[in-house]
């Protein structure tokens, strides 16, 4: 490449552009990251905010759904189209336990059971039971959720997993 540069006249615009292109091509990864970081630090607050939104959008992390990918970039599992939502529903790992209703005679037992698997005090557990239907526990594993459901159903409550 240096032989190519030496053949171009020294005052030529092409030579300066080629030298600049070669210098950026040989720029190491850490130098490139340092340059990008310093350029980001030079941005004002509004520009940094806009940059953060643009970066999230480009990475597909926007709050309005996943980014639309090119047709050639689809993975084999997502190429099916309609099968993707069904696969996502099967892979659910976190569940919410929701108290739908309970037998009024068993209200105290339900409150005690709720206090047993939550960190709520007596008043908070009573308020939670009284405002049914309400989510009792959020983001638990399936095994733990099933144990909670069994205990609450044993004392006379109607519980669903969401």
TrEMBL record:
GO cellular component, one term: ribosome
Highest taxon in the source lineage: Eukaryota
Keywords: Ribonucleoprotein, Ribosomal protein
GO terms for biological process, alphabetical: translation
Domain Large ribosomal subunit protein bL12 C-terminal, residue spans: 95-161
Phylogenetic lineage: Eukaryota, Viridiplantae, Streptophyta, Embryophyta, Tracheophyta
InterPro entries given in the database record: Ribosomal_bL12, Ribosomal_bL12_C, Ribosomal_bL12_C/ClpS-like
Protein name: Large ribosomal subunit protein bL12c
A Pfam family this chain is assigned to: Ribosomal_L12
HAMAP family in UniProt: Ribosomal_bL12
Family the UniProt entry places it in: Belongs to the bacterial ribosomal protein bL12 family.
